[in-house]
Amino acid sequence: MIEIRGIRKSFAGVEVLRGIDLSIGAGEIVALIGRSGCGKTTLLRCINFLEDYDAGEIKLDGELLWYRPPETGARRRYPEKALARQRQRMGIVFQQYNLFPHMTALENVCLGPRFGQKLSAEAAEVRARELLTRVGLAERLNSYPAQLSGGQQQRVAIARALAMKPQVLLLDEITSALDPELVAEVEDVIRALTQAGIAMVLVTHAMSFAREIAHRIAYLADGQIAEIGKPEEILDRPRDKGLREFLRRIR
Amino acid sequence: MGQYRAWLEAYGAAFLDAAAWTLGVAVASFVCALLWGAILFFLRLNGGAWGRRAVDAYVQLLRNTPVLLPIYLIYFGFPLVGLLWPASICGGLALVLQNGAYICEIFRGGYKAIDRVQHDAAKSLGLMPWTAFRKVTLPQLLVHSIPALGNQAVLLLKDTSLLSAITVVELTMQAKVLTERTGAAYAPFLVAAVFYLFMVWAIEFLTRLALRGVRWR
Amino acid sequence: MTPSDLWVLAQAAAISLLMALASIAFGTLLATLLTPLAFAPWRLLRAFYRLYIFVVRGTPVLLLALLVFYALASFWGRISPYTAGVVVLTFYLAALIAEVFRGGVLAIPRPLWDCCTSLGLPRLSILRRVVSPLVARYALPPYLNVCVMAVKASSVLSIISVWELTLASREIIERTLDVYRVLAVAALFYFIMCFAIDRLGRQLESRLAARGFAGERL
């Protein structure tokens, strides 16, 4: 469903991504692991074009995203309107939740459907209520982010991403910023989502969680996918030397 | 005590009149300065490299020159090109041009205070840039700007006193006139000061009220 | 506008600068006496500080100048406008600078105070070796802003007949009606003075930053 080919990205002369190739099937869950600074977050941000990339292509259901199909030499971006529409097919949840502080939980979740997908206010609210109930926050609809715990805010962030009915969910270390006792509630929500058939790409350090829900785990090093495979293969029988070192360090 | 009473009866009305002028000019100028500052801010944000440079040059020029210069420029300069506007409008316009520059900088500060990743979140929801600005950036920018805007309002209020240099009868001018007319040494200035202090306190009170009215901080 | 007018404006600019610098110097001295009041253990002193700041910052400089000028004149007869001007600016700037210093003290992170006390350092030593250097560095950017404000405030003194750049400009304008050129020159002089202070400040800041500390630039 998602085809990522040859992604390259440099920051200030340093090449962070050196040719990433990855295919993700519908409903497949892929975990990205690796040392800090290896480019996992950058790759995630390239997928939904929060960062532009220097080379490569990303296709969703066979359709080329972000850049027009190359006719002449140089590649050109789609205009903002088209980019916005393309972004609506993916949802992203950030490490720092990033809820809009001036809106209630309900308003946060309604925003995308109402103004991005042009739903009516009532339809957007119905969808938002249902999603917030699904993540277990039915009683906190009218709370502001400042009144919610980290785990609750992150669950609102997940609901907000799901409100756009995305085909793929991008999760950037969504439990790293949480106090340990709040991690479980967020992992429960993701676990329940695995049944929903949405593809997911999650950047994570939580190896046990990755083992539990991921169909495949990819290890990033030096800007490339050094090794990729089923969780048992990657975590129990790693072949790449760097990966072995990495797993030893974090145990 | 009695002489103060007589004094008050004689000149109280004059002071109130002058205070009304001060307040009127201040409020009108502040509202226009908010608009002008907003326009400058937008120009800077969306005007590309040239827009940014132009606005920056304007702001730098007005931040590094005293406000009397624009006042004199308009008051003495406009008649030369045939514009015979009343002194209060000339002065008010100068205040707008000056304070607009500062308010543009205040909006910039409010914009920078918004966590960078808020824009990412809005983008990734597939919102169009203008919608994202209207719904996510603008409300936060305005709330972050409130304290500095309140401060600027105080500064503008005090700058209205400079209009006494171009014959506008506001509080400072009134006090000066009364001092010279009644030979009352410096008492009228004290009265004028009390008026100003009260207005400053009122502005600070309103600012605090505005901040408390924001539910989500 | 003739070359001799230009020379007159240059001299007037020098006077503006001198007045500003003198007032900054005296104002800073006064501020060093004021700021401790803000932290005094006696409520009366703290209230006095807050009242002083409120009154001086809430009243237009022009009004303060007129007040001081007429008040001093009623006590001591004829008084030079320059004296009155410097006195007013001194009291005005002292309030601004005192607030800048106070902000500097408050900006010192709480844990640092605890470190000092747990090291058992004598209070004067803490003041000299820890507080003052830190406050100086935190306060440098806003202090420079106040210096720029001093130069601009000197222009207000023109209204109480202090002969400086703004008054000189006005005189020439009223004589020759050469509004735009004269004001352009005056603006240029002010701009150079303010900008120079700003640049000097940034240089000082980067020197301090190189020594391991950088404050917040506006």
Please sum up the structure shown:
The complex is a heterotrimer of chains A (251), B (217) and C (218). In chain A, 37% of the residues lie in helices and 24% in strands. Chain A is α/β, with parallel strands linked by helices and 251 residues long.
Greatest interface: B-C, 37 and 38 residues
Percent in helix of chain A: 25-40%
**Count of β-strands of chain C:** 0
Specify the overall morphology of chain C.
flat
CATH superfamily of chain C: MetI-like
Instruction: Report the strand count of chain A.
Output: 10
Gross geometry of chain A = globular
Average of the residue pLDDT scores of chain A: 88
The secondary-structure class of chain C comes to mainly alpha
CATH topology of chain C: MetI-like fold
Please estimate the helix content of chain C. over 70%
Structure overview:
The complex is a heterotrimer of chains A (251), B (217) and C (218). Chain A is α/β, with parallel strands linked by helices. Chain A is built from 9 helices and 10 strands. The longest helix of chain A is centred in the middle third of the chain and has 14 residues. The two termini of chain A are 34 Å apart. The relative contact order of chain A is 0.17. The model of chain A has no long low-confidence stretch (mean pLDDT 88). Chain B is mainly α and 217 residues long. Chain B has one domain: MetI-like (MetI-like fold). Chain C has one domain: MetI-like fold (Orthogonal Bundle), CATH 1.10.3720. Chains in contact: A-B, B-C. The interface between B and C is large, with 37 and 38 residues.
Relevant terms:
heterotrimer, A: 251 residues, alpha/beta, six-stranded mixed β-sheet, four-stranded antiparallel β-sheet, 9 helices, B: 217 residues, mainly alpha, MetI-like fold, flat
Could you outline the blueprint of secondary structure elements for this entry?
The complex is a heterotrimer of chains A (251), B (217) and C (218).
Chain A: E1 2-11, E2 14-24, E3 29-33, H1 40-47, E4 55-60, E5 63-64, H2 80-87, E6 90-93, H3 105-116, H4 121-134, H5 150-162, E7 168-172, H6 180-193, E8 199-203, H7 207-213, E9 216-221, E10 224-229, H8 231-236, H9 241-250
Parallel strand pairs in A: 3-8, 3-9, 6-7, 7-8
Antiparallel strand pairs in A: 1-2, 1-4, 4-5, 9-10
Helix pairs in contact in A: 3-4, 3-5, 4-5, 5-6
Chain B: H1 2-46, H2 48-63, H3 68-80, H4 87-112, H5 116-124, H6 129-159, H7 171-182, H8 187-212
Chain C: H1 3-38, H2 43-58, H3 61-76, H4 81-106, H5 110-118, H6 123-154, H7 165-176, H8 179-210
Helix pairs in contact in C: 1-2, 1-4, 1-6, 1-7, 1-8, 2-4, 3-4, 4-6, 6-8, 7-8
